[in-house]
Amino acid sequence: MLNKIYDWVDERLDITPIWRDIADHEVPEHVNPAHHFSAFVYCFGGLTFFVTVIQILSGMFLTMYYTPDIENAWKSVYYLQNEVAFGEIVRGMHHWGASLVIVMIFLHTLRVFFTGSYKKPRELNWVVGVLIFGVMLGLGFTGYLLPWDMKALFATKVGIEIAASVPFIGGAIKTLLAGDATILGAQTLTRFFAIHVFFLPAALLGLLAAHFIMIRKQGISGPL
Amino acid sequence: MSNNRVSRRQFLNYTLMGVGGFMAAGMMMPMVRFAVDPVLQKAGGGDFIPTAKKVADITNVPERVDFSFEQVDAWYTSEVTSTAWVYKEGNSIIALSPVCKHLGCTVNWAGSPDHPEQFFCPCHAGRYEKNGKNIKGTPPLGPLDEFEVKEQDGLLYIGKTRPNTLV
Lengths: 224, 167
Fold this sequence. Notes:
The complex is a heterodimer of chains A (224) and B (167). Chain A has 224 residues and is an all-alpha fold. Helices cover 70% and strands 0% of the residues of chain A. Chain A contains 9 helices and no strands. Chain A starts with a helix and ends in a 6-residue tail after the last helix. With 167 residues, chain B is of the alpha+beta class. Chain B has helices at residues 8-35, 37-40, and strands at residues 49-54, 63-73, 76-89, 92-96, 108-109, 119-121, 126-128, 146-152, 155-162. In chain B, a hairpin with a 2-residue loop joins strand 2 (63-73) and strand 3 (76-89). The interface between A and B is medium-sized, with 21 and 12 residues.
């Protein structure tokens, strides 16, 4: 049945070369844990992507209940965690996944560093990877405020004060982030929400695409 | 050994897809259940809400009776005011819902000067007779809902809506 549907579509649109290009590629022996168990270090990049997919999915579901408003943010988080079925699990996935993604990126970076994979001709992919790391930290920083509890509030105050310590333009950066020169409140929360769910994920998807296209184009770096 | 030998490729395909499917399902199940929760929430029991209307004052002309209650909408609790059109039919009290059965606007008794003895919906000129029966040729396809009512200490109490029992 599925085969017939596939053949019907393939006959008209010739989709086999498309997914072959994406899915069918060489996995050299030195990166295959089945050959050398120590090659599991080559899995950290893929695991980072896997956790990122979980973050995107669980985040999409969380926004069904979350409200980015200072009166209701905490209440809506409390409600979705305690009153909605599996709320604790879905919020837990997003909460723990946020830390795990940073850990995985770090391990992936270490692997790339110690195998020397960043060297010519792969310098650009290292640069894009560092940008992805920056976007991930931004996602962590903006997401931390959203539950709107005391920990979130003061962590964001500290983060914004650090940004404000930049010479000359620190004050402007602070106002740009918080939405107000002195208050960390209603406008900060809506800004952080917009940055967390629209701007940074869009940047992340673009950078990930560049990261993957480059690795496919250049192939995996050779054995040590 | 049967004639259809499972090849190594088939075996790997099936096991990998099975394990992968199981893992994906384990990941998606909590999120999907989380999303469909409103559909599976049990409806709360309907309490009777007191109104300020004395039962003795109710006439056989439909009259607007407002009543307020505390509505819990997930994390937001608020005081909500609803309306019923109340009249006496013999000894029994009838309370009709003002929600038009066409597309949910609010109907008024004698809302149109041309039809003083009918409920009228201003959105699409839907009309109903006094007992809530929808008038043929106007948009609504069913009669107005009816509230459960009871009398306590001389005052009118209004409960949940139910399908019209008069028509």
